[in-house]
Amino acid sequence: MPEVAQHAGARFAQEDFCMPVPARNSWPRLAVAICALLGVVACAPNSARTPLEPRLATSEQSRYGTMLRLAASARAAGDRAAAVNMYQQAIAQDRTRIDAYVLLGDTLVEMEAFDEAARTYEDALEIDRGNAAAHRGYARALLGLKRPEAAVLHYQAVLERAPNDIQAHNGLGVAFDLAGQHEAAQEAYRAGLAIAPDSMLLRNN
Q1: Cβ-proximal residues to 138 (8 Å cutoff; 6+ apart), any chain
Q2: Consecutive 10-residue averages of pLDDT for the chain (205 residues)
Q3: How far apart are alpha carbons 105 and 119 in whole angstroms?
Q4: Which of 4, 93, 100, 137 has a Cα at 20 to 30 A from 187?
Q5: 3-state secondary structure at position 146
Q6: Model pTM?
Q7: pLDDT of amino acid 43
Q8: Could you give the CA distance from residue 157 to residue 146 in angstroms, rounded to a whole number?
Q9: Could you give the CA distance from residue 193 to residue 203 in angstroms, rounded to a whole number?
Q10: DSSP readout, 51-112?
């Protein structure tokens, strides 16, 4: 009886843990099934593969947006150095989108890093020559560099695209004043006041 039990136990162990070897022509189907279970896309036939490009693009866009949000939070908290680093990381993620360049330039102007800000706005304008925010920021950087005549050109570029931009009217007036063109400065202020008569920004000039 012990011998019978021993043989029965041996058969149980073999049946429980040993799998029959599949027939040769069943291996391709089995390999695809295993790959599907494991999520291994590369193992599947070409027709069964999931395209990676859209997912990678979505992931990069997500990282880009995350870096912009983190940079905005750091900037709002007064940590401009951290904001600069995060905007630079966002640019590294996607060098074709202009918003990170403009925001980086604006932050650098706040830090009075006018040379670096000017270069950043130049990079932005290489992407979009008509971007009003980049022209406005570049003009501010040029004022910081004591180049008011050049700033005038960029404020005028803003007003060509956004004629009701009060900040651009005021900036243009300031640039004309610093360039010694006081009559032109007063015209710029008056043009802004015609749009926003209660603007203290313009009235103070």
Answers
A1: 105, 118, 121, 122, 125, 154
A2: 42 40 45 40 43 55 90 96 97 95 98 98 97 98 98 97 95 97 96 92 82
A3: 8
A4: 137
A5: coil
A6: 0.70
A7: 41
A8: 19
A9: 8
A10: PSHHHHHHHHHHHHHHHHHHHHHHHHTT-HHHHHHHHHHHHHH-TT-SHHHHHHHHHHHHTT
Tokens describing residue 101: 């360049």
Q: Tell me the CB-side half-sphere exposure of residue 97, using CA atoms within 13 A.
A: 17
b or e along 143-164 (b: 16 or more beta carbons within 10 Å of the residue's beta carbon)? bbeebbebbbebbebbbeeeee
Give the list of residues 6+ apart from residue 102 with CB closer than 8 angstroms, or none: 121, 124, 131, 133, 134, 137
For the CA atoms of 61, 65, 67, 72, what is the dihedral angle to 10 degrees?
A: 160
Task: Give the pLDDT score at 24.
Answer: 47
